[in-house]
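Structure (tokenized):
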């Protein structure tokens, strides 16, 4: 997660938005929050994608993805949550087109990577794992499987490996040709959003309240850096006091992990009971005022919210949570997909293909030879 002080980040972001968009002063302090009109791409229908898309061209793609993710997660269980988050952060910006994977480039076209957007900077994990998967897939089926589909498959595999639900992933996405850092700053919800802000961010992507609560359940696994919760623990809403929605015993536990002005690299479990198991405990935690992020606890502690009944249902019925999570993941995975002749199948996930050619040449032959032939 971001390593700089979160209060400074909020201020910097608001100033950035006012300068860029001419916004009037705002009274609600929010990182990455802009009321966004849904623009730029249509929602794709499920009919455009097919779980058997690679049946004849790359039949083993799912098992290849699973093998790489399984091997990585044995050493780093947190990676399962990180890969689900990476898919989420891709789909909320330009749709599920692997734009989040693109690095900064100047040629053949200038790309400002989404990886340096406020919600992603110093916090995205799993980019190297996606590259490992891509290499393995290219060895088996060169030029066939998109990075966007790899992200989607990796998210599903991560759910299963953590003990969560599985589903048939609709496939056939193609990779985008650009990224959009501005949209990343606008579209991705922040860890201290209010419920109204969360709903706005999800509605902008064509996702409803049930989708919001179900997809938030991915926080049943993984960890967050203390910088995302520090103000909740010590100075909520500039009150000099902790967030009143936090259980007092849980508060003291979190303060030991995340002391005031402590190391920014400290991390806390989203689920204090089963941090690496994909289960319904996330919702039970919300009922007990033990949601790690403000945006988590908002789902249950916002007065008279329609999300409360959904939380209660998922807390009492894990099957109901799993079914909703599966449906919402498929729905999210259909946002703004490129199919047919749109986009491309990237050779390397971090660069569009014309840029990839340069890197292939540079890595395949000695530098002196490459330079001689490139003059």
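Design, position by position:
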């Amino acid at each position: 997660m971001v390593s700089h002080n979160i209060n400074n980040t909020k201020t910097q972001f608001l100033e950035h938005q006012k300068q860029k968009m001419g916004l009037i002063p705002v009274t609600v302090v929010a990182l990455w929050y802009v009321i966004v009109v849904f623009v730029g791409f249509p929602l794709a229908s499920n009919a455009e994608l097919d779980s058997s898309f690679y049946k004849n061209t790359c039949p083993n793609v799912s098992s290849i993805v699973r093998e790489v993710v399984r091997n990585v997660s044995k050493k780093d269980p947190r990676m399962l949550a990180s890969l689900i988050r990476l898919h989420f952060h891709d789909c909320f910006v330009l749709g599920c087109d692997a734009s989040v994977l693109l690095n900064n480039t100047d040629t053949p076209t200038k790309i400002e990577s989404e990886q340096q957007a406020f919600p992603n900077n110093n916090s995205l994990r799993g980019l190297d794992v996606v590259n490992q998967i891509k290499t393995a897939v290219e060895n088996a089926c060169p030029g066939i499987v998109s990075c966007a589909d790899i992200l989607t498959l990796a998210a599903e595999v991560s759910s299963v490996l953590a003990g969560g639900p599985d589903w048939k992933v609709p496939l056939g996405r193609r990779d985008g040709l650009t990224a959009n850092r501005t949209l990343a700053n606008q579209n991705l919800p922040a860890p201290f959003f209010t419920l109204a802000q969360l709903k706005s961010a999800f509605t902008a992507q064509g996702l409803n309240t049930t989708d919001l609560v179900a997809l938030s359940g991915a926080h049943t696994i993984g960890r967050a850096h203390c910088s995302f919760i520090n103000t909740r623990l010590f100075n909520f809403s500039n009150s000099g006091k902790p967030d009143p929605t936090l259980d007092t015993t849980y508060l003291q536990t979190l303060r030991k992990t995340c002391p005031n002005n402590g190391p920014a690299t400290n991390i806390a479990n989203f689920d204090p009971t089963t941090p690496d198991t994909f289960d319904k405990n996330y919702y039970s935690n919300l009922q007990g005022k033990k949601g790690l992020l403000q945006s988590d606890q908002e789902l249950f502690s916002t007065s008279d919210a329609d999300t409360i009944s959904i939380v209660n249902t998922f807390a009492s019925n894990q099957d109901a949570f799993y079914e909703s999570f599966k449906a919402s993941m498929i729905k999210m995975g259909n946002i703004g997909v490129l199919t047919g002749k749109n986009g491309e199948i990237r050779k390397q996930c971090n660069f569009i293909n014309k840029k990839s050619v340069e890197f292939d040449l540079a890595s395949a032959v000695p530098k002196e030879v490459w330079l001689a032939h490139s003059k």
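Reviewer-requested clarification: DSSP finds 16 helices and two strands in the chain. The two ends are 42 Å apart (CA to CA).
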